[in-house]
Amino acid sequence: MHSDLRVVDLYNNTRSKKITKFKASLQSEYSLASNYEKIEADFTWLEIMEDTIMYLDNILRNPNRFIVNEEEIVKVEQARRITVESIKHLSKHTNYIQEIEDNGDVRPSKILNINKDESYNTYENRLIYTLINNMRMYIDMKERSMVASSRLRDNKVCEYMGSSKIGAERININMHISSKTSYDKEDGERNGMTAFERLDKLKLRISDLTNTQVYVSLAKEHVARVIPPIKKTNLILKNTNFQYAMKLWDFLQANTNYGNGVTKDKKLIDNDLGVKQMLDDTFLLNYLTMSSIDKEDGILDDNAKSELVEEITNKMIDKIVELNADMPVEKLQQTLGDKIAVIKNKHEATLAELEHKFNERIDAYVGKILEFSFR
Asked: Residues 72, 52: one domain?
C-alpha cells in the first residue's frame, strides 16, 4: 500500500530478523498527562432580557386595573358623598336614623360611605411583578460568575524511556513531547457594546420598571409572588406584550444553572497497552531512521538481497490478501497475475523504447562523422 511516509518504506525494507531482535529485548515505560479546561461564556439570557424589556415597559405603562369599593359606616358630617347605595343601606338600617322632621326630611346620625379606588392587584400585574423580581435575582446570580470571554486550555505531556539491544549494539531513548492549545474568544458584544456595558444598561432599565406606579403599589401591598403553573387568562394568551413576557418567564424557569459552561478533565495514563505499543513502535522507527546512515548495514550480499526481496514481497502479498479477504482465491490470483503482467509489459516496453531512441542517436552521430571533411 502506498504511503507518503518514508519511514514506512524504511520499516518495510528492513529485515524482519533485525526488527524481531529489537522487539524481543525492548524494555520501556511511559506516562501521558492531560490537563483540559474549557469555558464557554453564554449570553443567551442577556439577549432575551434585552429583547423583552420593552414589552414589560409597555405593560407597566398601560397596566391592567380594577375599581375597589371600600365601604365604611361614618358620621354624617364625615361622609364625603351620599350615593344611592348609602340611601339603600340607611333604609335597611333605620337604627342609624336620628330624627324625622315634620316635613319628612330624614336626619341620620350615621351613614354608609363608599370610597372607590383603583387597584393594580390583578393576577396579570402580579405576574409581571414576579417576573421582574426573578430577572433581578437571575442577574445577581449570573454576575457572580460572569466572564466576558470563552477560553480553552488543553495541555499534554508525554514522557517515554526505552532500551533495547541487537547483538553488541545497545539502543536507548529518552523522549519528552509536549503540546499546548490555548485560545481566548471575546463574547457578549452587541451593537458595539461589551457584555458588561450591556448588563449595566439592562439593570438601569429594570430599575426604571421598579419605579413605575404599578410596581411601587404592588411592592407596598407585599403581594404574593406568582408561582407556576401560570393561569392562561385571555390577556396573557392574546396580548403581544404578555406573549413576549411569557417567553422570558419560561426561559428563566428552564435555565436555572447560573454558572458558565465549564468542562474540566485531568488525567494520567501510564498503563494503556495500546498507547505503550504505539510509543514502542515509534522508538523502533526512530532507531531505524538512525540506522539508515550506517553504511555497513546497507551492504548486502546476494543471498541477503534475495532474502530481503522475498520478505518485502511476502509483506506486500500479506497486505493485499488482508485488504481483499472476501475475494475468492481464484479471482485474487487472476487479478494479481494480470497486474503483474501489465507492469512487466510496461517495464519491457520502456526498455525497448529507450534502446530504440539510443540507437537512433548513435546512427545520427556516426552519419555526421562520415560526412565531415577537412578543408
From this structure: no
